[in-house]
Specification:
This protein has 53 residues and is mainly alpha-helical. The chain contains three helices and no strands. The relative contact order is 0.21.
Length: 53
């Protein structure tokens, strides 16, 4: 169930869909916060602010 819901969340993140609902389902299926964050990092990457003001 965890793998399925994480895949659904990944699909939502790759498109224009709201990721909140698939994320809630993944957490309900007992996915860890690390698994959820890792899945989102794979799609969106890591935010690195610039050093410019």
């Amino acid at each position: 169930a965890v793998e399925r819901t994480l895949a659904e969340m990944r699909a939502a993140a790759e498109g224009d869909a709201n990721v909140l609902y698939p994320m809630k389902e993944a957490l309900r299926a007992r996915a860890t916060v690390g698994e959820v964050c890792g899945t989102l990092r794979e799609v969106w990457g890591i935010y690195r602010p610039s050093d410019r003001f």
